[in-house]
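Q: I have 326 residues here and want to know how they pack in 3D. Can you give me a structure?
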Amino acid sequence: MAFELDFERPLAEIEKRIQALQRRGDRLKPEERTQITTLEEELERRTRELYADLTPWQRVQVARHKERPYTADYIKLICEDFFELRGDRRYGDDRALLGGLASVDGQTLLLLGHQKGRDTRERQEANFGMAHAEGNRKALRLLLQAEKFHIPVVTLIDTPGASPDLDAELRGISQAIAENLLVMARLRTPILAIVIGEGGSGGALAISIADRILMLENAIYTVASPEAAASILWRDAAFAANAAEAMKITAPDLLALGLIEGIIPEPLGGAHRDHRAMAAALKEAVLTHLAELRQQPLDHLIEARYQRYRKIGIYASEAVGVTPSN
């Protein structure tokens, strides 16, 4: 897979030199074979150095990469069986949110996740991963089924946000999201949420009230896109990189703030470069965290979930010579 992002241009140049030599095939001279080996080693070294120190805006670009694995890809790679459940029983089915019963390593779980679509037709059908009200109501229906049958829940989050169009408003998108938040906060079954790409706004929040939230190494999780924040703060979306830096939306930043519980490492160069390796790492994380959550009594789990969200936003500060007032 070619290096396509702007900040990857130095890597793309090395890759082009390697490909030019490889096209010579059997006509390669011994010194050219040695050159290929040297260039491949240099490419790996420089890729490792670059991805070890990405800026927040660069991580945004990686999180949005068009070849990044989506929910449907993970379903194929980690599930021995998956039975999709469709529809909200009120309006219709929303292809932006996939959900169903999955078997992973012999364990049954409810899997919910956003789906952006690969080609133009799929993207239009899935509304680029932006769920409508019926998508969130479908998720709610499946969550209640999981609670009824004592099935743990795993959600995969990858959306720019909830659908902002008129149809979403007419069908009650805000109420649908609010109902999900209320139900997930007290759902009597373990919930694990994983941000696999973009975790944007209410669309992400609608399925990310959980006992634990994990993020892929180059995923982002934010109340608004950097472009939207820049338009609000600086009246210009061109300041998106500044907004990404200020908003603390990357996995390392959010782990330091205590908003997530863990980071799942990605293959060298990002999840889009090796779907199978990324799926294997995600599967291991799912099995590990669910096993730990299942060991907790349900009452303790619900109370811990409540306290998890009560603590968000608490910070400590020190002021010399100032005594706090009652």
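Q: Anything worth noting?
A: Residues 6-53 form one domain. The radius of gyration is 22 Å.
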